[in-house]
Prior knowledge:
By secondary structure, the chain is α/β, with parallel strands linked by helices. The chain has one domain (2-343): TIM Barrel. The chain has helices spanning 2-10, 15-29, 34-39, 71-75, 120-127, 151-162, 187-208, 224-236, 272-286, 301-310, 319-324, 327-343, and strands spanning 47-49, 52-54, 58-60, 81-87, 100-103, 108-111, 135-140, 168-172, 214-218, 241-244, 265-268, 292-295, 314-317. Helix 6 runs parallel beside helix 7 (187-208). The chain starts with a helix and ends with a helix.
Amino acid sequence: MLYRLIRSGLFRLPPESAHDLTLGLLDRTRLIGLPRVMAGCREDYPTHWLGFDLPNPVGLAAGLDKNGDHMHALAALGFGFIEVGTVTPNPQPGNPKPRMFRLTADQALINRLGFNNKGVDHLVAQLQRRPANLIIGANIGKQKETPVDRAADDYRLCLEKVHGHCDYVTINISSPNTEGLRSIQDTGRLRELLAELTSCRDRLDSGSGQSLPLVVKIAPDWQPQALTASLEVIAEAGVDGLIATNTTISRPELKDLRHRDEGGGLSGKPLKNLADQTLAQAREVLGPDFPIVGLGGIVSGQDAVDKRRLGADVVQIYTGLIYRGPELVGECIREWRQAQARTA
């Protein structure tokens, strides 16, 4: 109820302004407990994923806290884990504004932010002050001006910097807002990139004693045969998990016609069917034991349960949080727990 009152004011502002204002409000009120009050009664359901014992299976997707500036406030909302980023080797402003659009009738967003961030060194400094006892992933990408055939240099540099400061790393090769990035999902380039990054990770692990899982984040916009081919590369590459999926460049059955033709990635409720189809195919190809995160289109607890049924071990939310507020976290955990009890 509290968030619905706040949202009515926030939605009168441009989306990026509302985003910054909301995170600032959470930061300023964290010590008096407002984020916890907004989230409602804490819900937990211990879950094992990627070698970690999580308090619950609901995580925050990358993109909301690109620079790791708000981890403490976001942790108070009850997430089982948080992913920060996407971060690039150097700071970059991203694409020109306006670059984010609400499709309120669809409970959706379109963004073409373009990896706007303060650079990996800033993120590492923030990770050194991270919340205790919370699993944190770092999502890494390539610089806008870096040619695709040299993208591995950017990913490797980011991996070297964040190693030792986070619990897992997500390789973001699926944002539609950096030119040429999604071409890395093609099997040849993907095989080369993952071979280089797993080798780099193994070298860093051996020198530090840490075992750092690598996760690949894929798009929902595939032909089935091409998806299977790339999933088979991922299965053989020595990475540890998959996130299905990023945003879509398609525009399925939208009610809000005002922003429908804006360029960028669509997230929120209209993404669910595409993301679910990708998730189901990923589980079929990768087998029952490969760790998979379900992401895309979760705006209710039932949506999270659907991801579980299709093969997700855990889920992440982002756009649903914008529309439903922090209560969505607890709702997803409760319904996940109830679904697990019914199938036990």
